[in-house]
Structures are given as structure tokens and as C-alpha cells.
Design a protein that fits this description.
Rossmann fold, alpha/beta, about 30% helix, about 240 residues, globular, 11 strands
Length: about 240
């Protein structure tokens, strides 16, 4: 099904890119997590619009997408930024980043692929680094491309985009909820996990996006927490 989505985006590249010129208001929430000097990775960067929130920051930015047409558009619009064609499932790097973005990306992958992707993201983040992402809320009652109105298969919603030429591009969105996201981010500390519409907090039935901020826990903190647990367990054993 991931291949279906890839082909779908190739079919609707220009129409989709045109619909993503402006930033969603809730994306501005991410600004405070990116500082001058940070290394930032934008997974599934599309037409590169996310760079707009970094206009006042001195960062090292890398945007990747598996769609060559998206990367061509991004390079033309933002020639001072670095963009490359790369499939997230096969990407690899020795670099570590302060922040990794996935804007409406993870929801295109099934559970096994999401597990692989999140494992990569965790390893590529510096200790204390942030995973910043949004996923479409497929329970939104007002969205025609949701589980209420579109074709569904298992835990995925199959949507269709039509181009001006009449071509149809199919996009597969897996249904991700707050609970599912938190469970799959068990290696991270989840700081924010909320529904938003037009920059305002919402709920599962009216929210357009599920916005998530997760932090890679520092190794020393994890060891400390483990020692605390062992101490509590030891004290509990002695007292019985």
C-alpha cells in the first residue's frame, strides 16, 4: 500500500504542491523547539514549505522526499536550502540531528514500517533532540477524506485526488490516534500530543491534525530512572 501512495503523489505532484503553499497555523508551535545552530532533518519535505518557519533562524537544514518532482519544486522555491531525493525506508546517515520533522508523513506507513522509521529517527536524534510531527486525523467528521466518508481497508483510509487532466492519484492514510502514537513512541518522552484545527486546540471528532512533540531521553537520565526503579523495588522487597 505504501507503493500506491508513492505513485499517487507522483500523479498529483503539482496539484498537491499548489495546495501546500502556506503553513498550517499549528506548525508555528514547533518554532520554539528549533534554535540557532541546530541541525534539522525534514522527512517527507514535499515542496519544502516547512523552511518558512526557519526564516529567522540560523540552522543547518536538510529536506528529503522520495518524489523527484517535489524535490525539483523545493529546490526552485528555496535554492538556499539543501534538498535530496531519498526514500525514508532506505535512508541512512551517520549524522545526528537536533530536530527531525515529519509533517503528515508517518500516517502513510503501516505498523511495521512505522516501527522501522521511528527506530531510525530515534538513532538519528541527538540526546535531548526532538521529533516534531503531524498526522492527519482520520476521525474528523468534517473532512470528506476520512474514515466516515472514504473507502477503508483494515486500519487505513484510501483517498483519491483528481488532477485537472482527470488523472486519479490514490493516497493511503493509516488511522493514528493519540493513544496509538503514544504507544509507538514508547522510547521517547511525549511532550505534546493534541488535536488542532487552524492553530486552535480541538478534539478527535473535529481536529484536522494530530500534533506531536516527542523528546529523545538522554541516556544518563534513562540510567538514573532505572536505578531509581531498582531502589524502589529493593525497598519494597525489604519491607515485605
Amino acid at each position: 500500500m505504501q507503493e500506491t501512495t508513492k505513485k499517487g503523489y507522483q500523479t498529483i505532484t503539482h496539484e498537491f504542491a499548489a495546495s501546500r503553499e502556506r503553513l498550517w497555523p499549528e506548525l508555528n508551535i514547533f518554532k520554539k523547539y528549533v534554535k540557532d545552530g541546530h541541525k534539522v532533518l525534514d522527512f517527507g519535505c514535499g515542496n519544502g514549505r516547512l523552511v518558512q518557519i526557519f526564516n529567522d533562524k540560523d540552522i543547518e537544514y536538510l529536506g528529503i522526499d522520495n518524489n523527484e518532482k517535489f524535490i525539483e519544486i523545493a529546490k526552485e522555491k528555496y535554492p538556499d536550502r539543501n534538498f535530496i531525493v531519498k526514500d525514508i525506508l532506505f535512508a541512512d546517515t551517520d549524522k545526528q540531528f537536533d530536530a527531525i520533522f515529519m509533517i503528515a508523513v508517518l500516517n502513510h506507513f503501516d505498523k511495521d514500517d512505522r516501527k522501522l522509521i521511528l527506530k531510525k529517527v530515534y538513532s538519528w536524534l541527538k540526546p535531548g533532540g526532538y521529533l516534531l510531527m503531524t498526522n492527519w486525523n482520520m476521525y474528523n467528521l468534517k473532512n470528506k477524506k476520512s474514515k466516515w466518508y472514504s473507502e477503508t481497508e483494515n486500519d487505513a483510509v484510501i483517498t483519491e485526488w483528481k488532477t485537472e487532466k482527470g488523472e486519479i492519484g490514490k493516497l493511503i492514510y493509516y488511522i493514528l490516534t493519540k493513544g496509538k502514537i503514544k504507544k509507538e513512541l514508547k522510547s521517547f518522552k511525549v511532550l505534546e500530543n493534541k488535536y488542532f484545527t487552524n492553530g486552535k486546540k480541538s478534539n478527535v471528532l473535529l481536529g484536522s491534525n494530530l500534533l506531536t512533540v516527542a523528546k529523545k531521553i538522554k541516556v544518563e537520565n534513562r540510567i538514573l530512572n532505572k536505578s531509581k526503579v531498582n531502589k524502589i523495588q529493593k525497598e519494597a522487597f525489604i519491607s515485605t
